Model the fold of this input.
Amino acid sequence: MVSAAAQAGVVAACVVLFVPMGLAGWHLSRNKVLFFSGALFVSLAVGVHLSPYLPSLPYLAASFFLPHPGAAPADAASSGSSCVPFLHRVSWSDASSSGAADADGSGARAARAWSWPPSLASACGFARLSRDDASLLLNGSWVMVAGDSQARLLVLALLRLLLDPAAAAAAEPELFRRHSDYRAAVPSRGISVDFVWAPFEANLTRLLREDLRLAPRVPDVLVLGSGLWHMLHATDAASYGDALASVAGAARSLRSPLPVPPPHMFWLGLPHLVNHMLNTDAKRAHMNATMLRAYDREVEQRGLLRGDGGPFLLLDVGKLTQGCGQQCTADGMHYDGNVYDAVLHIMLNAMEDAKQDCICQRAPATAGASEAAHQDFPKLALHNHNSKVSGSEASKDWSSGWRAVSLTARA
Done:
């Protein structure tokens, strides 16, 4: 709709234009040269006054005669942001190698490889990031991943991308210490990575409402995910949904008062569960397909995801694990590293897309600033993650202990 200012400008222009022209025509009808000179002057004056309200003619001509530079095929829209919904359209195929170790190193199975269809990758610019590309994208960033074992496997995929193979292998034993937090730093890139053991939604809410509010800064990238422990110990989709609503509210309150662009927020979805492969009777009884669908519905309907007005972009682990298939899991719940590699690259491509579309770019962070923030962060009143957690113990305090390692990436 035309704004009130534009409407007032048009009315004023009509008065300025037609009243003098009428008077000039009445008094100067016998002097046509003077009449048209006055009309030309008034028309130019009106044009100057209206020009701020009208798009420029060169822009109109260019938009009419020239195609949009970012035009894409019909199945992928022209703008980068509209390509985000297509990020999970990956294809799976048998890898050329004869086998690959499962995520926990317990054995070897036929490997599966993932990729984006070439047409989609070309239209939307999706790409696997090299170590240098990922380091450049995350340069000076604080990455925090909080959740259960699925979140831990995502951190492993990130370390394998950022670090050389020897450094990533050396970090793995510390990362997989049972029910514990983990920290890694890549000083040469100014990147810090934190894993926070938070298997229940109450842990995530406390992290957002209490711990991060006391931090000198918030993470640049925040990945949260939970649900498996709730499904096993509580087996109540409605209460899970209520807990998710609390997480969403805490995340929104974390974003709203910030004077700088808010962090990239991602929600790690639940994996596809292969019931007969689950390794305990309790898991097979409580973690079935019906319950998984009910939990997935709560994720979609509780104001957590962007499509439902929430702050998080979904990393659809369920879709990716189902696509990879049963051959990608040894226990029906935890999947091979290539699945979490796909999750990681979907996240990084979404961040790259947001970076391209962002109008207000974040000021470049330095390695010193990132490390300084992490020197302060352990002083926060963090709560104990190093003990077993059950449904009734979800609200217990965590200890302030953090396992920290410093790793130098070699480009």
